[in-house]
# Entry
Amino acid sequence: MSGTRLWVIGAVLGMVVIVVLGWIVGVQPQLTSAAVSTAQRLTVDATNARYQAVLAALKADHEKLPQLQAQLSALKASVPPDTESSAFVKELNAIAAAHGVTITGLTFSDAVGYKPPATSPAAPAAAASGASTSTPAPAPSPSSTPQAPTPETNPLVTPSNFFASPVQVAVSGQLGNVLDFLQGAQKGTRLFLVTALSSNPSTTEGAPAGTVDATIGGYIYSVSTAQAQQTGGTPPASGAAQQPAEASK
# Structure
């Protein structure tokens, strides 16, 4: 083999080596760096998109802030952080005056801690081993007594922060007016759950015909997280003793 040919082969091999080294040392790191940069950019874009969505949601919530504050105020008035019996008495007196009913007695009993509703008993156990299971149980007939819905509970509502105060209201007036008063009391600012109602013809001397004396029983509620933390679940102090309230004249 002539020297010229060897020189050409050597030159070609040298150029190949230079190209390979140039790729390894110069081009490949740049391509890797570009790929990493692209991945980082995509990650940043995705993060920015999430932040923009959160920001848009916060802006929308901020625009609804007055509405949410109004709802919160209504809820606080419905279930205040204390018994606040005096405000409830004023509300009842106003409702009674609007419907021509006289409140003759109003009593608040001891506040009690909330008790979650009892769960339904477990379904009967399966038939004992060896018993026949070939005959299915008959389907309930359409006339069967309907089952009550499962009560909803919330783990945030506990006997340590939610209290019920029994209330008994005695009123006198025409039966229709008494029923209107009852409806107004249940739809008032303060949450009032009526659990009992009884009425009898009035025995008051000189009472107009059709006048009845009615007794309404129910509960008002209060929620007090701070009070529960301080007292370990003791009901608010203002609801702990019976309080005869001033009746409307």
